[in-house]
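no rush on this but wanted to send it before i forget. theres a chain ive been looking at and ive put its sequence and its fold in token form underneath. i want to understand how the tokens follow from the sequence so walk me through it. thanks a lot i owe you, the record is right below:
>
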Amino acid sequence: QSSLTGESVPVSKMVGDSVLSSTIVVDGNLIVSAEKVGKETTFERIIELVEKSQANKAKINNIADRFATWYILSAFVAGVALYFIFGNISLVLAVLLVVCADDIAIAVPLAFLLAIGHSAQDGVIIKGNNFIEGFEKLKILVVDKTGTLTKGKLSVVDVFSFGKKNREEMMALSGIAFSVSAHPVARAIVKYVKEKGVIIEKPDKYEEHGGRGSVAYFQGHRIIVGNLPFFNKLKINIGKEQTDVIYNEERKGLNVTLAALGDELIGFFVLADELRPEIKKSIQELKKVGVEKVIMFTGDNERVAKMIAEAAGVDEYYANLLPEDKLVHLKKYLSKDYKVAMVGDGVNDAAVLAASDIGIAM
């Protein structure tokens, strides 16, 4: 599972496959050989991208500073004109004292200070006044998927049962097979089964097959849980109608984990990186206050990206992106006429956060 791409579902790796730096091993063991070191690594490239993005980023001019500059200049010109007309220096000084812009110089920073202070109380840390002022021209909002639009953790969204076993019996048997595993899919299923009030027994014997599934033995029965290739390898009997149902869920970009008792398929779990419940309403509210387009960037595959994009109500999305890919796509939208904000993870999205007019790190 790579924190660089932000994929929500763990990816199986075989001998000879490439593994990105910052990959987390969620199951099994890996022996890896470094193909790139030092300046050639992805991490170093991200640092370089961040530095370049910050160097090339245009500064937001403060409206109050511009106003105060022209206001003071106008007052000075008016004072000179008064002196030439009346020749009274006291009159000129009196006028300049009255129209002095000190109140603006004090009031505006104070307003910003109060805004930053109130935001901090709500858990929003703002680095400077220019970011607050930049929201006035915000037209495009770019968002990362995992952990931003979604909760960043797999959860069970549906359960199917087949044959002689009902849903509760299927869940109980699956819980036995997954009770010992530390795999994210296994933990999500065990959590769901327990929440439904189903008691999970401990297996008499347990075997874990890294990246594919688990086999458990309980009271003389063999229980198998895992993905479809694992079931095909073990020659588990799966009917055509059952296969159609499974493929239908997989086509949606969802994770499907099957369960079998002996050689018979008894059901499966459907898992997904769950959309945050408030997201769709939040996007609608943003549209009301002036944001014209919301775009999603993700390292996840096309099917998952499409499912989340449609559920969240975003206008456009880009899938299968590495950090440098996100930067390339972001630059298409940067403009002098409006501001672009990026919402994402502070680590793998560092470069694109720095390149945007307003970077919002979750």
In short: Residues 63-86 form the longest helix (24 residues). The chain has a mean pLDDT of 84.
